[in-house]
Design goal:
The protein contains two helices and seven strands; from the N terminus they run αββαβββββ. It has helices spanning 9-21, 50-59; strands at 32-40, 45-48, 67-76, 79-87, 92-93, 96-102, 105-112. Strands 1, 2, 3, 4, 5, 6 and 7 form a seven-stranded mixed beta sheet that branches. β3 (67-76) and β4 form a beta hairpin. The protein is an alpha+beta fold. It has one domain (9-114): Nuclear Transport Factor 2, Chain: A (Roll), CATH 3.10.450.50.
């Protein structure tokens, strides 16, 4: 009997973002553990389960299809961190996501959704626009 090859954590997370970009959020469940736990510390929310995560994304108000671009990905063992640009033509964000992968599935996702803010005047003499 042939042994099943389990994809690397990096490959699983790259597939996650590819599936998210399809806007078929049910399809994303292919890389999520059934007992997935997602934490959003800024809003103090937790989502338990692949079904709820898919439903939350499907029900999120959008102005058009979501587009995703991986700007940075760092992987080590079962841990992967991404910084992604995403938007629907009106809304945009750059979440930083910490993934834990086991058995070829994402079991834990911790995401920070930073908000842009104007640079403080008191350091303008030390910085430049990025």
């Amino acid at each position: 009997m042939a042994e099943k090859t389990v994809p690397s954590a990096e490959a699983v997370v790259r597939e996650f973002w590819r599936l998210m970009a399809s806007n078929d959020f049910e399809a994303v469940k292919a890389v999520l553990a059934d007992d997935l736990v997602v934490d959003w510390p800024q809003s103090q929310e937790r989502i338990r389960g692949a079904d709820r995560y898919a439903r939350m994304n499907a029900e999120y108000p959008a102005h058009g299809p979501w587009r995703f671009r991986i700007n940075r990905l760092v992987a080590s063992g079962d841990q992967v961190v991404t910084q992604v640009s995403l938007g629907d033509g009106v809304q945009s964000a750059e979440p930083v996501s910490f993934f834990t992968v086991a058995g070829g599935r994402i079991v834990r996702l911790l995401e920070y959704w930073p908000q842009a803010y104007p640079a403080p005047e008191n350091r303008r003499h030390l910085t430049e626009p990025a």
